[in-house]
Amino acid sequence: MQGLLRVLHVETSAASGLAHDASDDTQSNQIPPKARDTSVKPGADQSQAASPVKGGGGFRAVIGRLQRTRVGRTAGGGWSRASAGLLSVLRPLRGSRAVVAGAVATAGLLTLGAGWQGVAYARQAVDLPSVLVHDYDQPIRIAFNRPVKDSMQYHWSDNTPGDWRVERSLGGVKTLTFVPAEPLVPGSSMTLHVSALQPVADLGSSTDEEQQMLVKVRAAADVASVSPQEGAQDVAVDAGLSITLRGKNRGLRDLRLQTDIALRSATPESTDDTTFTWYPAEPLAQGVDYRAEVLDMRQPAGQQQIGVVAFRTVAMPQVAYDGPTVVRPGSVIALAFDTPMQQDGVRSDIPGQGKWVSAQRYELTVGEAEVHHSYSITATQGMRSEAGGVLTEDKSFGVVTPGVVQVVGMSPGGSRVALDTPIRLTFNQPVDHASAERAFSLSPHVDGSFSWSGDTLIYSPSGYGYQTTYTVAIAAGVQPTFGLPGAAWSGSFTTTYVVRKLAVPFYRQVHSLSCESASLRMALGHYGVHIVDDDVMALVGGSKGPRNTATNTWDDPYHTFVGSVDGSMGTTGWGVYSGPIAAASHSLGRPATAIGGGVTAEQVAAAIHNGNPVVLWGVGGMRAIEDSWNTHSGGVVRAPRNEHVRVVYGVEGSSDRPIGFYIYDPLGSAGGFYWTANQLRTNSAAGGGHAVIVH
What we know:
Strand content: 25-35%
Distance between the termini: 171 Å
Number of strands: 39
Helix content: 10-25%
Structural class: alpha+beta
Number of domains: 5
Largest sheet: 7 strands, antiparallel
Shape: elongated
Radius of gyration: 63 Å
Number of helices: 12
C-alpha cells in the first residue's frame, strides 16, 4: 500500500497542471483554461456539446507504475479485482489529460481501503430531478451527484434567453448554473433537455444519457380580497385602496394601480408583505363613482389585471335646522343630520346648553338670551359623518329673540265671510292674555267670547250682519311674556251676501223671436202656471207684417208684437215691450207689474227677495244697435235692433245693495248664468230699462 501511495503522490503531482483543484473549481463561474467554453449566450443556440480535453502522456506512466507496484499484485501473482476494475476504467480515458487527476483520485480511494465502496461510487447513476421548484428572480443551479463529462448537451425547450455557467470538480462538470436574461414569470414553467449525459469514471452505471427536468417557477400568492369591494357604497374620501394576498408576496408580484385617481405614490405601502395599499394624494370628491384596476406587472401583457376596485364615495352629510326661528329662554332648537355624525364641530353663540342626543341630532336649550337680539348656530366646515363624509363649508342658521309684540296673522279676511266665523289673531310671541283681550275691539260691535290656542287669540261672535264690513283692532300696549310691549294694529273683513234663488223652471224659446213669451212662461212656471210660447203670442197679438221700408213704418211694440215671431230681427220681425207681456200675465192668472223704462238693480233685487221673478229686457251682447221707425199712429219708436229678453230668478246681496243676479236666457242652457249688479244695469239700460215683475 505504501508503494501505491507513493505512485499516487507522484502522479497527482504530475497531473496537477492538467486538472483543477476541486476547491478552486467550485468557486469559479468560468470554464477552466484549455477546456471548451460551454456557456450559452442570450439568443444563441443553447445546445452544448463539450468535447474531451486533449492531454500529455502522464496516463501511461500512471498505468505502468500501478502494474509494477507489488501492492498492485495479489499473493498469487495476479491483479486484484479492484486494480483490474480501475485499469478497465482508465484505459478508455487514456486520451484525456483532464481526467487523469480523477483517475488517480479514484485509484487512491480504491487503494486506501475504499474497496468496494469506491466501486459502488463509480457505478452510481447520474439522475436529474424530474421537477425543480424555483424562484423567479434567482439563477437555476443544477448540481450533479457526481462529475459528468463535458460532452453532454443541454437546452431549454422554449429557448429561454440567458447565460450558462459551468463549475468543475474531479475532472468533470459538477454544477450547471443558468442566469436568465430577464426575471422569469412567476407561475410559469420550462423544461431542460439534456443529452449525451455520462458520468466521469463511469463503472457501468445505469445513467440515462437522455434526460429532462421540469422547472416550475414559484407562483405568486393568489389574491384574497380587494378593498373597497366592487360596488361598495359610502366609501370614505380618504380611504386607501388595498389588495390582500393569501400569503406573503416575497417580491413575486410587481403591483401597480391603474386609475384616474391621483395617488400619493405609485408604489403601494405594506407592513406585512401581504396587504398592499395605495392612498389618494388628496381627498376624493364626495358622492362620486370611482374605478381602479390592480395590475401585476410581472404577468404577460393582457394578463396583468388581478383585481378591480369600484366604489362610490360617501355623500356629503346634509344638515337642517329644526326649531322655531324666534326663540326665548327655554326654547329647544336642533340641528338634524341625515346620517350619523362624529359628535363634534357644532358652534353657537346662543346662550344655553347644547348636546348630542343621538348621532344624528344636536339639541340646544336656550338660556338667558337678550331681548330683540339675533343669534346663530352652525355646523362647521370639516364635520365628518361616521361613514367619512365631510361638510365642505359652514352651514349656519339664524334665530332671533322676540322684540315688539306684533299681530302676524288674522283670519278671516277679504269678503263673503260667513256670519258665524270666529276671529283669530296670531301674535309673534307669547303674550299676557288679559292684556291682549283688553286691547281687542270689533267695529261695528258684535258680542262674543274669548279663547286661546297657543299664541292665537280667538273671538267667537254671536253673529254678524249680512254684507257688513267689520274692523278688528288691537290697541298698543299688549304685554309679552319675554319681549317688548306691542304697537297698535287693525284689520278688516266683509261678511257674506244674502243669496235668494227662486224655483223658476228653464224653457228655451220655441220661435226665433219669442224670447218675451218664453221668459214669461218661465216666470209663470214659478207659480205653477204651465203654458207654451204661443199662448202668450195669442194674447199679445200683432199684424205679423214686415217693416215698410219705403216709409219706414211698422207696428208699435208698446201695444202689440212687431212683425212675425218667426221673422228676421229688424226687417220682418222684432218683438214687444213690457206692457202687453204684463197684460198677458194677468190674463194667464198672475198679476204683474210692467216697468216701462229705467228699471234699477235695486228694484230687481227687491222683487227677488219678495219672491217674484222678473222678466228683464236688454240686448244681445252688452251694447245696443240703435234702430228707429214710424208707427201707424204717427209716433216714432227708438229701439235696439239686437233687443233680447231674459228672466231673473236669483239675487246675491241685499235689496239696497245687490251684488249680482242669477239669470236664465231662453236662448241659453238650463244652468243659467251670473251677472254682477253693474252688468245687469248696463245691459238693461241698453235695452231701454223695461221689466215685468210677475207676482
